[in-house]
């Protein structure tokens, strides 16, 4: 029986694969029930070895180890993601690869008929490839990361693909990736000086509304503790907690 969490995991994996196929320096591979997903930019959460096994065993650990070696050889910051709880064996594997940090990933879902899309009006542009550099500049500022860290992540065919919608204001970004009948909400980032003005909610609502209009039945996202109250107020509920391992 396929659960809501399973559908989200599959949609997220497909979305990340699409991104890695389209971004200029992306690469991906399947290794048994693990995947290696490399965006080619210097952000650890965008270069990932993923275990898709629902009940990890010796074979799945070997597959994840192979995927981890594939990702690590690109020489970029990277991480391991487990779509569920991570036991001692998985933690030990991550440690052997030098990924000594770790934590939970909160995964939330909002069905279209439960969504509260009310938001303050905001002039939000849906942007194409010609605005990819503008997009990554605002994205970096919104996440308070070094300028240029996202490189040409949004270049190539990313913002020209019908499954992907990029949204931009002078101070905020958003991204929707539609796979598996769901709309994934990504890159909700607001410049520090423009926060607490409703831009994050407006951007999230726009991504969701366009995704639902295109046929998605539910929206999903990953959130921090800080962002969770906002998303709960829009109709999201927590459905799964994944595990991640990264360098410290």
TrEMBL record:
Molecular-function GO terms, alphabetical: acyltransferase activity, transferring groups other than amino-acyl groups
Residues annotated as domain N-acetyltransferase: 107-248
Name the record gives this protein: N-acetyltransferase domain-containing protein
Organism name: Paractinoplanes tereljensis
InterPro entries xref list: Acyl_CoA_acyltransferase, GNAT_dom
